[in-house]
Amino acid sequence: MKMGKTSLIVFLAFFLVFTISVNAEDIFDCQTLDEEHTIYRLQNDILNSNESICMDIQANNIILDCQNHLIEGSGSGIAIFINENIHPQINRIMIKNCVITGWGDGIYMNNVRNVLVKNSDISFNSQNGIKVLYAENVFIKHNEINNNTSGGLYLSSSSNNHIIGNGIGNSNRGIYLSSSNFNTIDNNKLNNHIRGIYIRIGSNNIIRNNKIINNNPYGIYMIDDDGEDNQIYNNFFNNMINVGLDLDEDYTNYWNTTLQTGPNIIHGPYLGGNYWSKPDGTGFSQICPDLDDNGICDTAYVIDASCEVNIDYLPLTLIETPFNAIITNPIEGSTITSSSTQLEVTTNEDAICEYALARFIQYNGSSGQIEPYIPQNMSVTGGTFHQQLITGLENTINNATQSEGYSINIECIDYSGNSNEDSVEFYVELIHDEK
User: Fold this and answer.
1) How many C-beta atoms lie closer than 10 Å to residue 270's C-beta?
2) Which end of the chain is more exposed for a tag (fewer CB within 10 A), N or C?
3) Tell me, which fold does domain 5-249 have in CATH?
4) CATH 2.160.20.10 in the chain, residues?
5) CA pair distance 309, 314, nearest whole angstrom
6) Domain 325-428: which topology?
7) Per residue in 280-339, pLDDT tens?
8) Positive or negative, the Cα torsion across 184, 187, 188, 191?
9) What is this structure's pTM?
């Protein structure tokens, strides 16, 4: 999940401009933002606006901080507009903490560079959440972009942009790249689209560390005769059709990185390719053999049989770890000097546990049970740490040939139905005050 070194330097240089002394201006309604080196702070919600453009950014070095206020349209128009074709040389813009809904396009930017959009909710717009044309070095980070009819994020003829850490859901297309190259799509969640990521003419893009799930039918869809050399690795796929390819058979994309130490997207030990699952459990990563238990399938995955140059040579798979449950307190063979003790159980997966307690008398090393086991639910359970206070412990025997103790049996069941048991025996010696 690391940003490229050059991109990081550019981003930091871009961000440092905002540490320079700037003006601050409170705003209360839709307006033109045209004062350089100014932080505009929205002081209230804007409701049901009929403006065709609400916030029109027309100068360099501007921050728009909506302070989590709502900018609501009436079904069309643009909430925030940046267009260098109309206002030349717009550069270094930050938009943050905005709630944008009810517009055609939430944010529209054309022919811009060095723009940061972060920590905003851009949802329920009739066209796109964010539309980006002819742009470079735009960072779209840590936003919620949901329920926009046409698409969450639209990039056309744009290069060297970074889409990082966003939640993008419930649109026709999650992310649409058209004639766009050298962009990075990293650590996003894309769910419930017709196409999670749609690439129409795009090369040398990096798509990694994303969860691309519950899209119907396509997780990624690539079309036309110039979609090649994209690097797509360490993503979690779970869709009806994970990849749809409509490419010339000679165009190659790379579906894995070199094998290296992880962790990977499914918490396995190695980075390699992608995790390929399907809702019905028949995805390649769900059924492939992994005889050496290294979390990499033993065979490569051909993405599309009609386009055999697109292959994941290192598809990820889950390492099967047996479910286990261990009593960590009381310790086997220990002696309790109180009438209560804390039963503690640790499991390696979320589970539900129950316990049963029985008292026994030991005769010269041989135990005889004198109370039945009665299973009971533990009072703290449901995760990986389980706890129950055991009370009413006693000892009634005091001679050299007999001792008295308790046996605890536990049984835990994980959410896949696997069960595991453990048991311990411990002794009780209550200390009574002499009178």
Assistant:
1) 16
2) C
3) Pectate Lyase C-like (2.160.20)
4) 5-249
5) 15
6) Immunoglobulin-like (2.60.40)
7) 999 999 999 999 999 999 999 999 777 677 899 999 999 887 889 999 999 998 888 888
8) positive
9) 0.75
**What pLDDT is recorded for position 62?**
95
Question: For all residues of the chain together, what is the average pLDDT?
Answer: 88
Distances (CA, A) of 397 to 164, 406, 409, 425: 68, 13, 23, 17
Tokens 């930050």 found at: 94
Supply the pLDDT for residue 294.
Answer: 94
First and final C-alpha spacing in the chain: 70
Residues of the chain with CATH 2.60.40.10: 325-428
Q: Residue 162: CB partners within 8 Å, gap ≥ 6?
A: 3, 7, 11, 137, 138, 139, 140, 141, 183, 184, 186
Map residue 352 onto helix, strand or coil.
Answer: strand
Q: Say which residue, 358 or 299, is predicted with more confidence.
A: 299
pLDDT on residue 435:
40
